[in-house]
Design goal:
This protein is α+β, with helices and mostly antiparallel strands. The chain contains 5 helices and 15 strands. It has a 4-stranded antiparallel β-sheet with strand order 3-2-5-4, with no helix packed on it. Strands 10-8-12-11 form a 4-stranded mixed β-sheet, sandwiched between helices. This is Nudix hydrolase domain-containing protein. It holds the Pfam family NUDIX.
């Protein structure tokens, strides 16, 4: 396997390379089954490649950084190596992040075992109801079908953000209301939602800690505390089976007729990290 990380900001440096538009590389790795090289450029204005210590990654590839001093020499070495491994280098896109694109090439004559890029996006929604049986709802400022519907505050998780933290943050950003997490009461799993990715939406029961609304005018048309019966009486929520079932579950939880999943923080010996297990009463 070969990997290339190509920083989009380095496209202007391509003219520095002789004979080929192959991007410059910063470190190379080898193992018995996998030969890999990856690329991340720290500087725009120099062709000198700095050496870094050898490291092992999670696939036990040893990254060896005995590289030539200049990008010219390394580009020539890389071009020769690829020609040796394959007559034609069949790189394909793996994933992209702001600032770089990852290209992959499986060298061995066997099925590629490199894990695919992320297949899902993760969203959260917050059901917030006060002592007057009023639900915190929003109208989104978007050209979608939901733009005229009063709905629960929802949004996508940020990178490395916990589910319950994302729900609290989204409610705060959209409405200005502070909340605390009670339970995950349901989640929806759908496919081909955006960019051909699947989607997980976790519905969280939140308790309000403040009551004065202040909307995010860039994203939200309006937000209000709406009487529960009025909210449920909207044609969309009466006719859409998914929405109706989600709201029925939230109401049942509010009336203590249903229990969802709480977040239990614990350590796993698999990775020696603290993480959250969402489950019923233990």
């Amino acid at each position: 396997m070969a990997l290339i990380e190509l920083s989009s900001s380095h496209l202007k440096c391509y003219h520095l390379l002789p004979l080929t538009r192959t991007p410059m590389i910063t470190h190379v790795g080898f193992s018995r089954k996998i030969e890999a090289f990856t690329r991340r450029l720290p500087c725009l204005e120099t062709t000198i490649i700095k050496r870094k210590p050898s490291v092992f990654d999670s696939y036990l590839r040893k990254r060896i950084n005995c590289l030539p001093d200049t990008s010219y020499e390394f580009a020539a070495m890389l071009h020769y190596s690829l020609s040796y491994w394959r007559l034609k280098a069949g790189f394909s896109y793996h994933h992209a992040e702001p600032g770089y694109v990852m290209l992959t090439y499986w060298i061995a004559n066997e099925p590629c075992m490199l894990p695919s890029t992320a297949t899902h996006q993760v969203g959260v929604g917050g059901f917030v109801i006060n002592e007057n049986r009023e639900v915190l709802v929003v109208k989104e400022k978007c050209p979608l079908r939901c733009s005229c519907i009063w709905k629960l505050p929802t949004g996508l998780l940020d990178k490395s953000e916990d589910i319950f933290c994302g729900a609290i943050r989204e409610v705060k950003e959209e409405t200005g209301i502070d909340t605390c997490f009670l339970e995950v009461v349901a989640f929806r799993h759908a496919h081909q939602v955006i960019f051909e990715k699947s989607d997980l939406l976790f519905i969280c029961m939140l308790k309000p800690l403040s009551f004065d609304i202040s909307i995010d005018a860039l994203e939200i048309q309006a937000a209000t505390w709406m009487p529960l019966d009025e909210f449920l009486d909207q044609p969309f929520h009466r006719e859409d089976r998914m929405s109706k079932n989600i709201l029925d579950i939230c109401i049942a939880r509010h009336e203590n007729l249903y229990r969802g999943f709480t977040a239990n923080r614990m350590m796993s010996k698999l990775d020696e990290r603290l993480s959250y297990l969402y489950c019923g009463d233990i």
